[in-house]
Amino acid sequence: MRIIKNPSLLHQYLTTPPYTDYFRGDLRSHTQIVEYNAGEYVLQQAVPPQFLYLMLTGRCYTRVSLANGKSMILQTLKAPCLIGEMELLQDISPMTVQALEKSRMLAIPMERCRPILLQDPYFLRQVCSQLVVKERANSLSLIHTFCYPLENRLAKFILDNRQENRFLIKKTHIAESLGASYRHVQTVMGAFVEKGYLSKEKLVYTITDEPTLSALAQELEAFGAAELSLSL
Question: Quick check: pTM over 0.85?
Fold first, then answer.
C-alpha cells in the first residue's frame, strides 16, 4: 500500500462524488488517499481491518478460503464502491479482498470512525443499499454456477473482464471465480479457440466472434434481469 500525500487532490476527492454519495459527517481530517498495486491485499480473511475504504479507481476481487484448503473468488468489485462495510459492523473480515489491478482508494481508520459512522443514518442507508446489490450479485453467481454450463458462464466472464477486445487473466483465477476446475476451464477455453470465438497468442486471448460469445452470455444476463425485476 502506498500513501499519496496531496492535499489539493484529497480536497477534490472529499468534496465530490463518490465520497459525498456515502459520507456526510466530518471525517475529512481522518481520511487519506492510498493506492494498492495488483496482487496486494486490501483485507485479509479473519484479520481485523484497519480501514474502511472507498475505492475510487480500479478493481478488486473477494476471495474466501475454505477448510479443505481450497479457495473461491466470490465477486469482482469495481469502483466506485465501499470495501470493509461488513467489517465495520462485525470487526473480523469474513473474506479476503485483493487488488486485481492498480486501485486508488480513500482510507478511513476503522476504530476511530466506527462510532461516528454507526450513528450516521445517511451512511447506514447507503451501506444497506450497497449490501443488497452485493448480496444479489453473489446469489446470481451461485445460481449460475449450479444451473448453467461453464460455456455460458465463461463467455460472460470473458466479456465482463476484457480490456478493449483482449482478455488476459490467469486460468486459475477464472477457475476460482467460476467454481470450476482448472482443467475444465482450460478445455472450454481451448474449444472456444478451435471454434473461432477466440484467438490466442502466447498468454493473450483476443475476441474474434463477439456475437456468439454474447449469445452464450445472454441467458445468464436475461435471468439476472428477470430476477431484478421480480425483486423491485
Answer: no
